[in-house]
Amino acid sequence: MNHETPEGAIHRGRALVLADLAACDAAGPAEVSALETAMEHRRWWCEQWPEGAPYLPGLLAQDVQDALLDAHGAAGRWPVCPFCEDHHALDLEPELSEDPQWVCGATGRTVAPLGGLDTAGEADSA
Prior knowledge:
Elements: H1 6-23, H2 29-48, H3 56-72, E1 91-93, E2 101-103, E3 110-113, H4 122-125
Antiparallel strand pairs: 1-2, 2-3
Helix pairs in contact: 1-2, 1-3, 2-3
């Protein structure tokens, strides 16, 4: 198991989520604010369960997904599957993991690791 500190995991998670937001041209003020709010909430959460630190990056991504969907409805779906035409959001799987992956819920296809959406689909376009 990863022995990263809770604060280190929060900042690593921030960097990964921010990279994926930027890859989707969704790193505006509202999205970054949702990420900062999630970070504060997860700091408290990790005080209660320090052993959960390795799961913080994935939980932050899921928190941001939920916040954007709550704030914007269907228009807040993030990240959108780059392979399907129905504009559904990708799922983060497994839900509680040290190495979560963005996965298309419709096809089961792995799209990218958390933080790797900037390279999603490159193998298909080559």
